[in-house]
Amino acid sequence: MSRTTPFSAVNLYQDVAVDAETWNHFPDTDVVDITIQAIKKRGIKVILAADGDEALAVIRKLIPSGSEVMSGSSTTLIEIGFEDYVARGTGGWILLHTKINAEDDPVKRAEIRRKSVTADYFISSANAIAQTGEIVSCDASGSRVGAWPYAAGHLILVAGINKIVPTVEDALQRIRTYVFPLENVRAMKAYGTQSMIGKCVILANEKQEGRITLILVSESLGY
Questions:
Q1: What is the tens place of the pLDDT at every residue in 52-67?
Q2: Is 83 in contact with 2 (CB distance < 8 Å)?
């Protein structure tokens, strides 16, 4: 099951007024099934996981030892235990985030970070998933979505079913009125600075078979 963190949505509701009833609810099983089929028709593989522990186990199976791995900052990945697993260094992966943190020169560090979106495997989450199959995410700088369209060799996304909404328009509305206010509070608490909606990506179709995998988790994860 997932782990609640200080930055989990439930712990931020007291700091910002958001409509959790509309934007953070569990859809019916039929809706989940319809959404999965719609995503698959767009060339994206979907694996349904019962909980965060199973989602983490799937990630570990998907990424071969020796692969370059980079992940975008994600409350969801923290909640499923991915960041703790990576910190233990037991996966046999080449962790680009470790290389970034080890570089003292700010110019060189920025260059490694820019190139990290081309990793063999980029792990991230999504802000919203439309029942029509589109997967949507926004970021302030682009570091979490830059790998999505093309750069990463393989893109693995992890998202709870609480992020399913009817349409792409609803997905963008979810980001503007629910995700961003919570992320802004998180950024203020974590970094002492405000966030913003800077770069947005909509995965509408993927031509390269097997490049993108969505691990859809039957839990409420992230925001």
A1: 999 999 999 999 999 9
A2: no
Instruction: Provide CATH code, domain 9-217.
Output: 3.40.50.10420
CB of 23 within 8 A of CB of 177? yes
Parallel, antiparallel or unpaired: strands 199-203 and 94-95: unpaired
Distance CA 194, CA 192 (A): 7
Q: Evaluate if residue 202 carries a pLDDT over 80.
A: yes
**Annotated domain spans of the chain:** 9-217
Residues in contact with 24: Cβ distance below 8 Å, sequence separation at least 6, in sequence order? 9, 162, 178, 220, 223
- Specify the DSSP element, H or E, that contains 212: strand 212-217
**pLDDT confidence of residue 63:** 97
Whether pTM > 0.85 for this model: the answer is yes
The DSSP secondary-structure symbol of 163 reads G
Say if residue 1's pLDDT is above 70.
Answer: no
Find the farthest-apart pair of alpha carbons in the chain and give their distance in angstroms, rounded.
52
Model pLDDT for residues 72-89, shown as the tens digit of each residue: 889 999 999 999 999 998
What is d(CA 72, CA 121) in angstroms, rounded to the nearest whole number?
11
With beta carbons less than 8 A apart as the criterion, state whether 158 and 80 touch.
yes
DSSP annotation of 177: I
Please provide residue 116's backbone torsions phi and psi, each rounded to the nearest 5 degrees: -65, -20
Return d(Cα 70, Cα 20) in angstroms, integer. Answer: 30
